[in-house]
Amino acid sequence: MLKFISFGSGSSGNCYYLFTATDGLLIDTGIGNRTLRKYFKDYGLSLSSVHNVLITHDHADHVKSVGCLSGDYNLPVYTTREVHQGIGRNYCVQRKINQEHIRYVTKGETFTLGDFKITPFGVPHDSTDNVGYCIECENVTFCLITDAGSITDEMKAFIGKAHYLVIEANHDEEMLKNGPYPQHLKRRILSDNGHLSNTSCGTAIAENMTERLNGVWLCHLSEDNNHPELARKTIETILGSHGIIAGTDIKLEVLKRKIPSGIYELTL
After folding, report:
1. Could you give the 3-state DSSP secondary structure of residue 26?
2. How far is CA 239 from CA 141, 158, 189, 200, 203, in A?
């Protein structure tokens, strides 16, 4: 059975785990190795069950421990050539990825890692490069989209394929506009290469989901410009305006910024 855990979701550190009885795949490594080892132990899991790492982009909250994790556990790290180059330049990644662990992916080209069939796709963000991942395993399609300034047609198509979706709901626009951030940072977040608002996230789900979609997790909420209940209510309202009832038609949950989630079983 395919299972999913979020170990952290937000600017303090992002890390997600997909696993089966025989394979494990980490997506992003924005929390420290010591913390990650503790979390795995708390769940009765071992980091030795992780066989590969996917990286979305090169910002520190997604990659700061990637070199340590890869080196300590002999893990291949998959992402685009541009993201690998960005990781190499990122001063927050104190221990770089060993050359023998570097693996390149190409957006739009599907490849297989153990139990997982993976298709990377482009996501607009002001990083060196950024990819979302559509992951198929045991007939379940899982899609992750984070740090997205806008929704492209390609992203819409992958939302439509998903049985389970992790998608960014970073900020409430009014909270951001009226909040303490300097104007240049507000402009960056609101740009097409910034972060998705609650409203943009809800609209993307409502307009592109199909009857296949069983569950949605909202990720990467801002600590200063959002609130979990506000994000959930905003998106529930948008779904409702499209005749979709959260909790009945689909499950809708908010991932915590600094606290691991439960273990979710991804079934059809």
Report:
1. strand
2. 21, 18, 24, 12, 8
Task: Identify the pLDDT of residue 184.
Answer: 97
Measured from the Cβ of residue 34, the count of other Cβ atoms closer than 10 Å reads 10
Provide the 8-state DSSP code for 102: E
Query: In terms of Cα–Cα distance, which of 45, 1, 35 is closest to 15?
Result: 35
Partner residues linked to 54 by β-bridges = 27, 78
Asked if 36 contacts 15 with a C-beta cutoff of 8 angstroms, the reply is yes
Q: Residue 175 — left, alpha, or beta (φ > 0 → left; ψ -120 to 50 → alpha)?
A: alpha
Distances 163 to 71, 142, 166, 250 between C-alpha atoms, Å: 33, 6, 10, 10
Q: What is the distance between the alpha carbons of residues 158 and 133, in angstroms, rounded to a whole number?
A: 9
- The helix (H) or strand (E) run that includes residue 207 is helix 198-208
Burial category of 94 from C-beta neighbours within 10 Å (exposed 0-12, middle 13-18, buried 19 and up): exposed
Q: Measure the CA–CA gap between 100 and 77, rounded to whole angstroms.
A: 10
pLDDT given at position 208: 98
Q: Encode burial over 79-93: b for 16+ CB neighbours within 10 A, e otherwise.
A: bbebbbebbeebeeb
**Residue-wise pLDDT tens digits, 59-97:** 999 999 999 999 999 999 999 999 999 999 999 999 999
229-240, pLDDT tens digit by residue?
Answer: 999 999 999 999
Residue 64: both structure tokens together: 């700061």
- Provide the token pair at 74: 């002999």
Over range 192-206, report the average pLDDT: 98
Report the predicted TM-score, pTM, of the whole model to 2 decimal places: 0.97
